[in-house]
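Model it.
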Amino acid sequence: MTKAARLLCISNGHGEDAIALRILSELRSRQPQIELAVLPLVGEGTAFQKQQIPLIAATKTLPSGGFIYMDSRQLARDVRGGLAQLTLAQLQALKRWAQDGGAVLAVGDVIPAAFAWWSGLPYGIVGTAKSAYYLRDEQGLLADLPWYAGWAGLSMYLPWERWLMSRNRCRAVIVRDELTRSELQRSGLPEPFASNPMMDGLTSTEQAATLKPQESETLTVVLLPGSRAPEAYANWQILLQGMDSVLTQWAPRPVQFLGAIAPALDIAELQRALEQAGWYCEAPDSDYFVKENGRVLLTQTAYADCLHSADTTIAMAGTATEQFVGLGKPAFITPGAGPQFTPTFAKLQTRLLGPSVILVNRAADLGTAMATVLADSDRLAKIRQNGRQRMGSPGAAVAIAQHLSQTLLPHD
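Modeled.
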């Protein structure tokens, strides 16, 4: 490298921020002199600030939490909350940053990609949310495709997204799986790169062994209510109903629930809801709550360990569900009121993750559905293979950083 590279990363969501941070960390490791900056379009960008990566514009959390695509009413709320003014300020900050040259990396959907194009600089696109699996699998097209599929040329990437990817200034297109890479290549993009960082950073620790019950007949279920308030608290009430269903189905066999709770949530509020649902502290100094044949532990510090320790999950989350499936395990999902985990989102998640996800419309039916799937060894074997195929292996951020070093950033 003849000079230190400048790179601005634009992302638009909590999960996108996490993926962007993994990639930027690997780039910084490869090129210690690189000048990094970020423009998070959604949320406060605290994850970047903790890693001393500067923001180029002020941030603001809007009412939707970034899920305006799930519900048009959320867009109206965001407009009233200052979306237009925030977007204008972000575009102005982007132009100021671009005056000194460099490159832009868009992580997310068409919005950060359009920002990257508008900068006038070379750019790369990391598509975190879209996948050909929404429309097809290795055997062909899925049944009951959405109305827009044919109009979009049977691609999840719409014509204007493919246009952004095909510009001369777009030096890198990174998609999440091989099926999507092949689809884009057939549509005329010469060198898309497939790699999915969602499975990075999920290494279990010694604590995982302590979370796994000694009794072999104990079923361990991780609870994933989502990461954003207030939706996660409403989801928790639904998960409590699902827990009762599982306890009834498994009785008298023991069930252990592990609540993997996002640090931003108030764990005391979830514990109060447990107590209102009939759970009580196992002992004065215990972190476990008990009820009938069940025990539950809530933790905000052992996310990866919970995923590795569990046999299955009851999930109302996006990224967390995908990561659990990527470990080769079955996920049971049930829809809520949103703004993220709506019936529409849940249905789309079954398309993305295929047989690894079992959609149960009523929380009261989760126990029956879980017993059916977990008793089917052939189905579980298919789920193991499917999850790993669709989500990929750890090490993707390293591969992406290497690819960007060769295609987007200045080098000798």
